[in-house]
């Protein structure tokens, strides 16, 4: 048996291909090819089965060494046909001849005998200037652009153990252009693939995977320094800003009028923090009082004192055509007016304190901060404005009410917020965003329904800590946000694939490759677990996997959510416990404890 090492001229990175050839003697063929009208000798070598073989290194694409052929061996010229059988005559191979037949049909005896006595079908005359005798010199360098042989810098030692590294240049290129080329060729002589991959990774991921196996220990993977997930709703915190209350305001009062009334010099919160909250009854759409948040309590107190001095000086504070009362208020009053149907709680600042369950008066027990009916009516005020007489003069009021609701909603109380309640708020957000976008396009009210109001609504929804990455991806799709804008709102890549994460969210500031590395670990491990299951269970999982996204693998099977009324009443805290526990179980199976 002899070994045939073939270099594929169509590939920049030549890979060795070994084909078994049956032969009594080792035969060495020179192959001739055409390049720009000039024939050049190159290609395949059938090595002798001696103890000393040629060495081929895959670390560089054009490293090769050949075993010296036996002295005196004749070299008939032929052309490679990408097949070992094309290099052998029928008499040598010991098989019936199919020379000249592509389909492999049998030929006549005369044709067979004729094929035996002639050269192979791809025979070509030998290139002039090249000796047919075997010498100790290696065969010419394979280069389609050169017809004269080997460049002076590319040398191959006759010793199989000595290999000189060279750089491959595609045909027809100037070898001396260097860095001045428009698209210079990369020189990989001094760069290993592993270092290239590390350079593309973030420092956090390189530190995490800096082990011999490339996999961290379990305790390192769960370290908060590297663990990229958190409970999204827990990012919300209770604030205790100073609050000023404006009473007896006109029904059609605008947000800009309230800010102008208090003065630009007053230290109101930034516009991005939505400091103005004009209370609206969600059922009747009636405008109530207005609240304004200040940076500190002292700033709010100074604003109230200034208006009190104006009253003492005989100048009554007016907003529109109405005299307005300005008084110092609190977060408790703001939260109570903003969530009037929240029973069974007492507000301690912006934090709710829940009363004990009262079985004798169930109507006084806590059922939620907002009801689904409130969210539905909030949308109806926009869809059917002629049935809402109070919002006829202020069509922007339902949108501003939703902005205040999302901004002040106590999302951090995850053990009291259910999946269905959050879905009701999210559904109302999507509907109002769609309706506002349509009103702006149709120019229904260019004074009140503006692009600024639309941007405020989208920004508040994207910053809402209670919404999942999938929910925010739906909102970004409605708003046609770019990838950079989504990333600014801490959205992960492929957020549309986070379909079964009802509490998990990416940690702010965590590199994207770290997040995807953890997801890849979860996906691969759950795939291995699925294969190890019994056939019946595996078949069921495969059928269900066709109906969902598999970016997270079989993470949904690990959690085992049971959809229905029980799932709707599940709290965000319970969902977070189930998801984080599932992640820890999967990582424990994928990584070593130490």
TrEMBL record:
This is RNA recognition, RNP-1. Residues 51-80 are annotated as: Disordered. The keyword Glycosyltransferase does not apply. The keyword RNA-binding applies. GO terms for molecular function: RNA binding. Keywords: Repeat, RNA-binding. It comes from the Eukaryota.
